[in-house]
Design brief:
This protein is mainly α and 190 residues long. It has one domain. It contains six helices and no strands. The two termini are 32 Å apart. The model has no long low-confidence stretch (mean pLDDT 83).
Length: 190
């Protein structure tokens, strides 16, 4: 999604240039350019604000994998404990595995919480894509009606339509993936 924010900023710059080229006919384009810039800022903010949450998701996921691997290792040790005539009390291994299981449950709940936060943080993307669709339609109408500079602004409209389509598709994919992940976590913890 980060490349999308860069492309949205490029779109804003192109809109400014197209409005400037339109000269006296560019007043409407300047207003539309401001709306495009606001849309770009909102999309960028929405996407970039998730970085901290994603870092936490990665950290928690690695902790869960580590706990799970340690638990499996202790299970293998416990399975071979009697055969090796190990002097370590079996209760030590049982307590360790129990502690790892409890820690894993806590970490999985934290992970689920972070995914829900991520879902909430990204939820405005769908509404922003609708806003972008309306803005592209209005911009296309204005570019068509303009006597001067409409051609250069039409290129901005085409780019806006393309980016809005990408935003909508990525937003739908992200929503779907996050729903599946949260559902899978809930199944694991049930």
């Amino acid at each position: 999604m980060v490349p999308l924010t860069k492309r949205m900023r490029l779109l804003s710059s192109n809109a400014v240039c197209a409005a400037a080229r339109a000269g006296s006919h560019g007043n409407t384009f300047r207003v539309l350019t401001q709306d495009i810039q606001l849309l770009s800022d909102d999309v960028s903010h929405c996407i970039l604000s998730t970085r901290k949450i994603i870092d936490e998701v990665v950290f928690l996921s690695s902790r869960i994998v580590t706990l799970d691997n340690n638990k499996k290792m202790f299970q293998r040790i416990m399975d071979s404990h009697d055969a090796l005539n190990d002097k370590t009390p079996r209760e030590f291994f049982n307590k360790s595995v129990d502690k790892m299981v409890k820690n894993e449950v806590v970490e999985v709940e934290s992970l689920k919480t972070q995914f829900k936060r991520l879902q909430e943080q990204l939820s405005p993307l769908e509404e922003l894509s609708k806003k972008g669709q309306y803005l592209s339609v209005y911009s296309a109408v204005e570019a068509e009606a303009s006597e001067g500079g409409g051609e250069s602004f039409q290129a901005v409209v085409n780019m806006l339509r393309s980016l809005v389509k990408i935003l909508k598709n990525q937003s739908n994919k992200i929503t779907s993936v996050l729903d599946e992940i949260i559902f899978a976590i809930e199944l694991k913890t049930a």
